[in-house]
Write a structure and sequence with these properties.
Layout: E1 3-6, H1 10-21, E2 28-30, H2 34-44, E3 48-49, E4 58-61, H3 65-72, E5 81-84, E6 99-105, E7 122-126, H4 129-142, E8 146-148, H5 151-181, H6 190-199, H7 205-208, H8 212-215, H9 218-227, H10 230-246
């Protein structure tokens, strides 16, 4: 099973690393950013190119969503299997005379963060059962959590991920702005953050909710609003309104 990875960003790096760690060495990593490709190539011992795309059985397109369609057009080999790694695009965005698929790893990827790939869920979709079996075999070599998914389902998976990851991380950034403004080390809040995240491994998020909004403590809510300005105040009001509506307060 020959595999080519197209892309040089965080997803491409981690997917390449996951394959290498599981003895599935890609035959090439291809892209435009030679500096990043060289870095990946030297670390993982994968040949790279910015000009010549080699023949392969499988091509995994790991680029930003807006570039997937254009990148898919450079693959001219017929009857190969081409999969993008986007959570929000249909297979039909791939333009070529080849078999089309989706190979979506549900994780936030940063180059410097070491990951346990066996825990990362992979959501796969293909045009026929044979290709689904190929993708399933590939994914299960890397992860213990592999699930078939339609595009309609995958859209909601990606939406859930935005709420659970991107929005939460933005709130961390806003929280750090407040602590920095008062010269309070943000590290002091890490045990609270860790406990909050760990708790939902054991308790439903709705049951784990605490804080002044769910208690309907109007005095504290008003006090906090007086301490905030601009975007953070709007976020605070919106979040508290959402909490109170969920608990019908």
């Amino acid at each position: 099973m020959q595999i080519v990875i197209i892309g040089s960003g965080n997803v491409a790096y981690h997917l390449a690393r996951a394959l290498v760690e599981n003895k599935l060495l890609p035959v090439q990593i291809f892209g435009r950013n030679e500096r990043e490709l060289r870095y990946i190539s030297e670390e993982l011992n994968i040949p790279y190119s910015t000009k010549n795309l080699v023949d392969s059985d499988i091509y995994l397109i790991c680029v930003s969503d807006h570039a997937v369609e254009d990148v898919s057009k450079i693959i001219t080999k017929k009857n190969c299997l081409v999969a993008h790694t986007s959570g929000s695009l249909p297979m039909e965005v791939l333009k070529g005379e080849y078999r089309k698929a989706s190979f979506y790893p549900l994780q936030t990827f940063s180059r410097s963060k070491v990951l346990d790939y066996s825990k990362i869920p992979f959501f796969i979709e293909a045009e026929d059962e044979k290709d689904m079996s190929i993708l399933s075999e590939l994914a299960t070599r890397v992860s213990k959590n592999v699930m078939e998914s339609t595009y309609e389902k995958r859209k909601y998976i990606h939406l859930t991920a935005v709420f659970a990851c991107n929005f939460v991380n933005h709130l961390f950034s806003r929280a750090k702005e407040i602590s920095d403004s008062q010269e309070i080390p943000f590290d002091y809040f890490l045990p609270l953050i860790d406990e909050t995240v760990q708790k939902i491994h054991e308790i439903e998020p709705k049951s784990a909710q605490t804080g002044p909004a769910v208690r309907n403590d109007r005095r504290i809510l008003k006090l906090h609003e007086q301490l905030l300005t601009d975007e953070s105040l709007e976020i605070y009001k919106t979040m508290n309104h959402s909490i109170q509506k969920m608990y019908e307060l």
